[in-house]
Structures are given as C-alpha cells and as structure tokens.
Amino acid sequence: MKRRFEFEVLAECQQFLLYDLAADTVENLDWTREADDRLLAVEEGIIGVGTIHDGYISVAVEIADSESDEDMSRWDQVNEATIEVPSGRLIVAGMFDCLPHVRPIDLEPGSYRTRLHYGDLGSLSHGSFSNEHYKVTMWSAAPGPPLVLKQASIRKKERIN
Fold this sequence. Notes:
The structure is a single chain. By secondary structure, this protein is mostly beta strands. It has one helix and twelve strands. Strands 1, 5, 6, 9, 10, 11 and 12 form a seven-stranded mixed β-sheet that branches. It has a five-stranded antiparallel β-sheet with strand order 3-4-2-7-8.
C-alpha cells in the first residue's frame, strides 16, 4: 500500500531538501562538483535535490512497501540514494523554509532507499513558478550508495541562476 503526499516547495539556491527532523543541520550540505553534476547531494539524514530553476516546484512523495518498477522513460533524470530517518519524521522543504511552517511525513524510524524522479528540467520558468516537477518514492531498505539511474541531457553549465 502506497501513501502519497503532495507539496509545493520553494526551490532556493537551485535545490530542495528531504531531511530527518532530527538532522543536525541542513545549511552545510556539501554540493561537490560530482553532486552538482548528478543533481543530488547526500549527507547523514539529508538529501539535497538539485533543480534547474529557483521558484515553486511540485514534489510528490510516495511511501511504498517495496522498490518501484516504474518506467523511467518519461522522466528526464532518475537518481537513487539512502536517507536515515531515526526520528520517524521526514521534512520536504526549501532551503530556507521555517520548520513551524512545514508539515512532516510520519514514517517508521529507519533507513529508506529513495528514488528521485526529475521531470521537465528544460522547461521555462514563469515568474516564481517552474514546470519542473519531482516524484520521490521511498521504501524501507538497507543503506546503499547514491546512484544515477538515468542522466538528464541538461548539464550544470546550463542551470539557470
């Protein structure tokens, strides 16, 4: 059985975050060249998802019982990473969102494999809104390394500040 949550997130500094409520800090997420190229930065309890535009984006989060076998062909990019959620409360937010204004997703505490689907990365932004959209599928699993399952054709140098 899947649970689905929908968010409109303000992507700031070309990123949005998934993090455990008890994570030490989100300000020091290390966007290395490799992380920037794969649009994915991972620290303990935090996943930074790179965006092409700053502005409001749609993020759907699905909590699944097992790994998804969804067709990746309709997505521009697909990454996978692990996030530890020891508090059992996952936050989906922009870089500078205030905690009192975000609603957490309640999960069983533990380790989650997280598949990140990136859509419409090459679309134009309309003021504060972008057509970029993201789907995050999470399931309980042993930790594993970050993976790029499908690489977008848009590259770092094309990212719009």
